[in-house]
Amino acid sequence: MHVTKINNSADITQFTNPTVNHVVWTQWSDLEVPEGFTKLSPETRDLGSEDLADITFYVPLYMGGKDALEHSRRMSSLKYLQLPNAGFDDAIEYLAPGVTLCNARGVHDASTAELGMGLAIAVRRGFSDFALAQQSGSWHHRRYPSLNDSKIAILGAGSIASKLKAYLQPYDVTVDLYSRSGGNSSLNISQFDTNISQYDIVFLLLPLNDDSRNFFNRDRLRSLKDSACIINLARGPIINTDALVEELNTGRIFAGLDVTDPEPLPAGHPLWSANNCIITPHVGGDSSAFEPRGKQLVKEQLARLSVGTKLINIVAQG
Predict the structure, then answer these.
(1) Mean pLDDT per 10-residue run, the chain (318 residues)?
(2) Structure confidence at residue 159 (pLDDT)
(3) Are 120 and 257 in a shared domain?
(4) Distances (CA, A) of 202 to 32, 155, 220, 318
(5) Are the CB atoms for 4 and 317 separated by under 8 Å?
């Protein structure tokens, strides 16, 4: 199978036929669709047991993982695979010839950036230690580092990174944005190793690919300054888990992880008990902010289809 990845939706000319009456499956039974389109949802079409050959526009169940993507293999008429999340690396293998893949860039910006801020503050200010002390009824007074006066790196320069940088503006911090291209006022990621020891906090918002997998290896983790904090909001394999556990257990660095490798993190895994680490179960985009933003994106995409306008957020084509 040949897959063409699209870095920008403007890179591709897409022609749609506004006379096609699409069959749309989403998780929302109350979604408004254009006149002539057929709307399906879990209430009207069971993906596990019924025929899916007529579906042309599919939005997998949010947080449904590979099980939700697997249903697309039975959609022989599928033309558009619209992801409800920004990451799309796990969907590439499901792209059949002629199918256009779109992600949900923008939908999760506010929620994920919000969690990133929360993790950074919680890790820096010792919230996990205070929570444990509260459970034992212990008045645990101790000084922790502040978010203020920190030097911060954000690796990745997409829409979530931009939102996170905006959320950091009211604080007394300096922020460096890194990207592969070095454009839009960001530094080239090739410069990061030169500056790594300067940063108090490093946020990871890189897409997962061959360049980013194991980006934070043992050498880079050891290059972080003492008391530095690494916040992973991207994908678990961007950090080498064994090396992270080893470095955390020295007590030298801190981590806030919304994603892990493996994921879900199994019971008994050493990362659960590693020092100086707060783990959230991949909930960056899964807040009350998702529903209205996710629906609005799908409504806009369907409206574009109905009049023959190019879709937004195109990231790949089968």
Answers:
(1) 52 49 96 96 94 97 94 97 92 95 96 98 96 95 96 95 97 96 89 98 95 97 98 97 98 97 97 97 95 97 96 93
(2) 92
(3) yes
(4) 41, 7, 12, 35
(5) yes
In a domain, 305, yes or no: yes
Give yes or no for a contact between 244 and 221, defined as CB atoms under 8 angstroms apart: yes
Question: What is the DSSP secondary structure assignment for residue 165, as one 8-state letter?
Answer: H
Tell me how far apart the alpha carbons of residues 236 and 242 are, in angstroms, rounded to a whole number: 12
What is the torsional sign of CA 41, 17, 100, 97? positive
Nearest to 74 by CA among 91, 93, 54, 90: 54
Whether 228 and 254 have beta carbons less than 8 Å apart is answered as yes
Count of beta carbons in the 10 Å neighbourhood of residue 92: 15
Model-level pTM? 0.87
Handedness of CA 177, 168, 104, 184 (dihedral sign): negative
For residue 133, give the CATH number of its domain: 3.40.50.720
Distance of CA 52 to CAs 25, 47, 78, 275, Å?
Answer: 10, 7, 9, 48
Q: What is the DSSP letter of 186?
A: P
Whether residue 22 contacts residue 56, with contact meaning beta carbons closer than 8 Å, is answered with yes
Spatial contact of 179 and 156, defined as CB atoms under 8 Å apart: yes
For the chain, what is the domain count?
2
Q: How many CB atoms neighbour CB 97 within 10 A?
A: 9
Q: What are the residue ranges of helices labelled H in the chain? A: 65-70, 109-124, 127-135, 159-168, 192-195, 218-223, 241-248, 290-307
Under the phi-then-psi rule, with left for phi > 0, alpha for psi from -120 to 50, and beta for the rest, what region is 63?
Answer: left
Cα 204–Cα 207–Cα 210 angle in degrees, nearest 5:
110
